[in-house]
TrEMBL record:
The protein's name: Probable GTP-binding protein EngB
Species of the source: Microbulbifer donghaiensis
A Gene Ontology term for the protein's cellular component: cytosol
Gene: engB
Superkingdom of the source species: Bacteria
Domain EngB-type G intervals: 34-210
Length: 212
């Protein structure tokens, strides 16, 4: 069959072959700052690991835990030699000292603002509890740094289509009112039902394109 798409489009990457690369306890131990990278961030109960596992079709790639907040490392996953996905530490439910949380905030801010190969931020929020303090902080960092952000409203299978779409509209409106809509897009997502998976893949393909 002929290709129906006539406009140029990013290479379609195969996320099923994504492999774990390394874990970095500090920013100094991250892989070399080259190529293209997209980071996943979210509160510890936002379903971040489940989303990465759904994307890659590998339920064991990113850790999922009944105890949110266990992952305290920056985890890198190889898409290709020059393309990576990054799982940033969950935040919100981790039972750690306030001083440690403050330290991680500084690390995250530095990573978002200084990592040259970072092309975009996937920010995950439970669709039933969007735009918490941490979410707004991450979006503020991204917007101020000129970093594109894409919000996944996760666990959309917990709501019917009407309420789910109403939440998406409400989030978009709130972002505009707070001046946090520049370079920020929003979608509904469910790891369980794979809702919105194709849209997430298209966003990643565009951001990870090596020729920009």
């Amino acid at each position: 069959m002929p290709d129906m798409q006539t406009e140029p489009h990013p290479e379609k990457l195969n996320y099923r072959t994504v492999q774990f690369l390394t874990s970095a306890p500090t920013l100094a131990e991250c892989p070399e700052d080259t190529g293209a990278e997209v980071a996943f961030a979210g509160r510890s109960n936002a379903g971040k690991s489940s989303a990465i596992n759904a994307l890659t079709g590998n339920n064991k790639l990113a850790r999922t835990s009944k105890t949110p907040g266990r992952t305290q490392l920056i985890n890198f996953f190889r898409v290709s030699d020059q393309q990576r996905l990054v799982d940033l530490p969950g935040y919100g439910y981790a039972k750690v000292a306030r001083s440690m949380k403050d330290e991680w905030q500084r690390h995250l801010a530095f990573y978002l603002e200084k990592r040259e190969c970072l092309r975009g931020l996937i920010l995950l929020m439970d669709i039933r509890q969007p735009l918490k303090e941490f979410d707004l902080q991450m979006l503020t960092w991204a917007v101020q740094s000129g970093l594109p952000a894409h919000i996944l409203l996760t666990k959309a299978d917990k709501l019917k289509n009407g309420p789910a779409n109403n939440t998406r509209f409400a989030v978009e409106k709130a972002l505009k009112e707070q001046g946090l809509d520049t370079g920020v897009s929003v979608q509904i997502f469910s790891s369980t039902k794979k809702t919105g998976l194709d849209k997430l893949e298209r966003k990643l393909n565009a951001w990870l394109a090596l020729e920009q």
